[in-house]
Design brief:
Keywords: Cell membrane, Disulfide bond, Endoplasmic reticulum, Golgi apparatus, Immunity, Immunoglobulin domain, Membrane, Microsome, Repeat, Signal, Transmembrane, Transmembrane helix
Number of domains: 3
Membrane topology: Single-pass type I membrane protein
Strand order of the largest sheet: 1-2-3-7-6-5-4
Pfam families: C1-set, V-set
Subcellular location: Cell membrane; Endoplasmic reticulum membrane; Golgi apparatus membrane; Microsome membrane
Order of helices and strands: HEEEHEEEEEEEEEEEHEEEEEEEEEEEEH
GO biological process, one term: immune system process
Number of helices: 4
Distance between the termini: 130 Å
Structural class: mainly beta
Radius of gyration: 35 Å
Largest sheet: 7 strands, mixed, barrel
Amino acid sequence: MGVGEGWGLLLCLAWTLAWTLSRAEADPAERQWRAVDVVLDCFLVEESRHPGSLASSRTMVDALLVLRQVPVLDDGSLEAFTDFQGDTLAKDNPPVTFEASVNLVQIPHAKALLHADCSGKEVTCEISHYFLQATEKKVSFITNVQVPGGGPSVSMVMKVLRDAENGAVLHPTLNLPLSPQGMVQTAVELQVTTQTPSLNFLLGTSASLHCGFSMAPGLDLTGVEWRLQYKGHGQLVYSWTTGQRQAKREGATLESEQLLLAGDASLTLPNLTVKDEGTYICQITTSLYQAQQIIQFHIQASPKVRLSLANKALPPTLICNIAGYYPLDVTVAWTREEPGGAPVPVSGASFSSLRQSPMGTYSISSFLKAEPGLEGSTYTCQVTHISLEEPLQASTWVAPPEQKMAFGVLFASSLFLLALLFLGLQLPHRGLPRR
């Protein structure tokens, strides 16, 4: 168990107890912001290049990120939270610990990070060196944090605060000065976040892709760029630079200038098509730093199911038509239910070739020879698709062969009697002989 994990477990237990005690007492109108330390187990990723070779190796070492005094809306459950103490670090082989001040930026999803352990989620956190665009001598790092299961994703650029001083204790591998508690002191100067790293939207609807940011005073926003990557191909969707907007995708819009400058760079896409699917990259560029967020965007279209009789010959053939669905994967299952019985699976179905419409949606048909039994059966075609909360079903009743044969015999007999009657009416009447 890492230091951050152990610390998170203690805080989780304290939070659970405090939340239980305060649940009935907490009044939403009385909630206040409270500054707490958010401690995350991370990995420090370092790239090293081998001499005389273009190849590089990637090493990961244990690290700890301490976000100092992050404002969190208190629902009454933060009373038991205490500040992180550096003396809790292990004496032997301690993790590389980064102490990050957030006084200059906002961390809007700090509560999700704070309570991730209590929700049974393991936060993914990676720290790596950041190479500045401008000729800035300060050393910087970038941290990427994500809460799995649809949670928020945050990227933070952190500037090292302490300069090397005479007699300062340096980290053995990073060669950076350490605080008296043995931590690398930094300040977050830019953060870019998204609430939803993965999105699913139905074909033809409109979607909003969230991207927010916060930057330190003194930094200027110089550019916002949205790009789409799909199957190895990249394209520009929307770009903004000071006073200029350019939409490459028809109908794409960015938030108003006022909201954009306030930190909202969300993108709106109307009339979604299959071509809108892929990986979206929201890139925020300032006068000194650059950071981005990645959103996996999936398009879905729900199938329409229709069950019909393909022919009336014995045995009859049923056809289940599944039309207009996306993405490609779909499951079709057949069942048969006799009177008074339970549905049982039926095998032996065949499929038509796959069809794709100009819109990119798919259609396919499933065929099944019906064997209804002596009393007839209800046949059901069940379709499962990712766009459906529950499977779609279509059912039809198939009469037994005997009823069909009896009907045929009765119909033929009726025709024969009608023919005899008609012929009898057509015969000439012979008169009786006179006396």
